[in-house]
Task: structure prediction
Amino acid sequence: MQGKRILLGVTGGIAAYKSPDLVRRLRERGAEVQVVMTAGAREFVTPTTFQAVSGRTVRTDLWDAAAEAAMGHIELARWADAVLIAPASADFLARLATGRADDLLATLCLATEAPIAVAPAMNHVMWANAATRANVAQLAARGVVVLGPASGDQACGETGEGRMLEPLELAEELQALLAAGGELAGRRVLVTAGPTRERLDPVRFISNRSSGKMGFAVAQAARAAGAEVVLVSGPVSLPTPPGVRRIDVESAADMLAAVLKELAGTQVFISTAAVADYRPLRAAAQKIKKTSDTLEISMERTPDVLATVAARPDRPFVVGFAAETESVEQNARTKLMKKNLDMIAANEVGDDKAFDSEENQLIVLARGARYELGRAGKLALARGLVALIARELAARADRSQRGTALG
Ligand code: CTP
Result:
């Protein structure tokens, strides 16, 4: 978001108390933020607060001669790379839907050609009201991006859908929106993450220590690069990255079924999941009782999700992961060839390396290329990996174009 100019509209709702934090989240991503407040917003937070966090004079009034002289409202509407209204009250959504220009913010929304996103926040009954639903549907049909709302406890003491998304989620979503021309814009990316659980009996399973963090970071990075992202995840305790569609699964078989169902239209498949290699031959229907001193469990191989995808004639660009305790690069290269992958990201595990840790490092091998992504946080590595995938895809498109030209 470096250097991007965000016009942040704040309207009258209790969630306005979170908007100063949103300004900070946007600025820490390098964006310039100009805040515009409605009269209602000023009942909840003062312009001084926003001025302090944005470093810019807050605009509140269409008829403010001094502010208009500095930057007129049409100029301000053109200045913005994106407009975000957060919180967007029911009243503001109604005004936006009907094209009113009865205050500065509504006028700016009419006058801008930049993408507009709204983060609705209101009581759940107001959100469910047919009038609000119709306004939101109309806005969405006109290309306004509707972010949230989330459901949960509300300021009024009730519970339901209508909470504004958290500032961090909004910042991520806006970043993705601005990346609409990003490296993976228009691509559909399917990611697997986390461990799988293979059932032994109704209360026990075999699994592994994968936390899912790397896969979730990859999904988040792909989304931030403008892709449509579907995340098929084994059991993990991580929040879904904003804007990512998540499908929860348990076993390797479930994961394969979910992946095959989602594969159509996918251009990139990234397999970060630590899929169990074996499962009990038979899951006991009842809890296994301790009737003997030892217990033997016969196991069979699980389906290889990655290899299955890579073997399909309509395969997308296929990226695997390799977790190795020794000869990292050599083992990864063997896997790249054996599973017929386009790319593999390898890391060293064991002695508490990688699993469940925040940091990692990767060697990335593609056909005829080798990259190293040095020790860093998992999100930074994920961004690096996404950039390499985008580069490989671009090189491939280039080669096929040249091939066509020659042919
Ligand atoms: N994978 C998969 N389905 C499986 C097993 C693995 O999709 N049943 C994928 C993983 O998501 C990862 C890659 O395959 O992208 C890892 O390859 P694999 O050969 O399973 O790695 P290890 O288990 O580390 O290999 P090995 O047993 O050879 O040590």
In short: Residues 183-280+298-406 form a domain with the Rossmann fold fold (CATH 3.40.50.10300).
